[in-house]
Amino acid sequence: MCGRYATRRQKQQIAEAFHVGKIFEEPFTANYNIAPSTFQPVIREERDSTEREMVKLRWGLVPFFAKSLAEWKGFSTINAKAETITSSATWRGPFKSRRCIVPADLFYEWKTLDTGAKKPVKQPYAISLKSGEPFAFAGLWDAWKEPKPAGSTLHTPDTWLQSFSIITTEANELMSEIHTRMPVILHERDWARWLDRTVTEQPPIDLLRPYESDLMEMNPCNPLVGNVKNNGPEMLECPQPIPGLPLNSA
Q1: What is residue 192's DSSP assignment?
Q2: Secondary structure E strands in 8-62
C-alpha cells in the first residue's frame, strides 16, 4: 500500500531530474503530504514522439470504461498490485501502453505499535533513498469521460479526466519491518523502457520487483502527517523517541 508520499522539489527541478521536455503550466511547489484524489505531477512519453512530458493527473485511477465517478468511490485504485496487473480489466490496458512514472522524494507508511492501549497506536515512517535523490514510482494512467445517458440527445462536454495509480509489490527486507508491501521504484536505467508506449508482446513486467533494501532508509516521522491538512518539512520530524523501537533503520 502507498497512500501518502512527498516531494521536496519545484516542478522545474523535477523536470530536470527526470529529463522532461514539456512541462505543465500550472504552479507546483514542494508538497510533504500528497494524498489521494489530488492532482500531482506525472511523467509519461508523448503520444507522437519519444519526448517526455510532465502533466498533472488525479491520483486514483478511473478506468476508461467506468460508467460514473460515483461508481468508483468505493474502490481503491490509488494502487495497482503487480501480481494482478495483467489479469485485471482495470490495469491490463494501461499496462500495455499507458505507463508513467510518478516522481517522489519519499513515501510514508504506518506501523501499528503494541502499546497495550485499547485503541491501536500507529507510528508513521518516512522511507527514502539513502542518496537523497528523487526517485520514480512505476505508475499507470488512464483517461475517462462522462458517458452520454442512453437515449439522450444532450451534448456531453468533451472533457477528459486523466488519472493515475502507483504500482505496489511485496516488501523488501527493510519495508517488511513495518508492512507487507511497498511501491515499485524504478532504477533510472529502466525509465525509458517503462515509459515506451510501443505495444509489445512482452511488456516490462520484470521491472515490477522490490527495490534494494541497502539503497533505502526508513525513519520515524511526525504523526501529524496522518491529517492531509498538515504539510511542510516538519512532517519529517519525529517529536519523541518510540519506546522499544530504533529511531532509524538503514
Answers
A1: H
A2: 22-23, 31-34, 39-45, 52-59
What cell numbers appear for 138 in the block?
512505476
Look-up of cell digits 527495490 = 211
Cell of 143: 483517461
CA distances for 128 relative to 46, 115, 169, 213, angstroms: 29, 27, 16, 11
Q: According to the model, what pLDDT value does residue 155 have? A: 45
Catalytic site includes residue 188: no
Give 39's strand partners: 58
Neighbours of 188 (CB within 10 A): 12
Q: Which of 2, 45, 100, 221 is catalytic?
A: 2
Active-site residue, 2 included: yes
> What is the reported pTM?
0.90
Q: What distance in Å separates the CA atoms of residue 74 and residue 190, rounded to the nearest whole number? A: 34
The CA-atom distances, in angstroms, between 122 and each of 1, 42, 116 are 15, 30, 12
**Mean pLDDT per 10-residue run, the chain (250 residues)?**
91 95 93 96 92 96 87 82 94 95 97 76 94 97 80 58 96 95 97 91 93 97 94 90 51
State the catalytic residue, choosing from 100, 109, 217, 221. 109
Contacts with 113 (C-beta within 8 Å, 6 or more apart), sequence order: 120, 121, 122, 123, 242, 245
Domain architecture of the chain: domains with CATH: 5-118+130-216 (3.90.1680.10)
Helices (H), the chain: 11-17, 89-97, 191-195
> Taking CA 180 as the corner, what is the angle to CA 191 and CA 4, rounded to the nearest 5 degrees?
60
Q: Is the Cα dihedral 29, 31, 37, 43 positive or negative?
A: positive
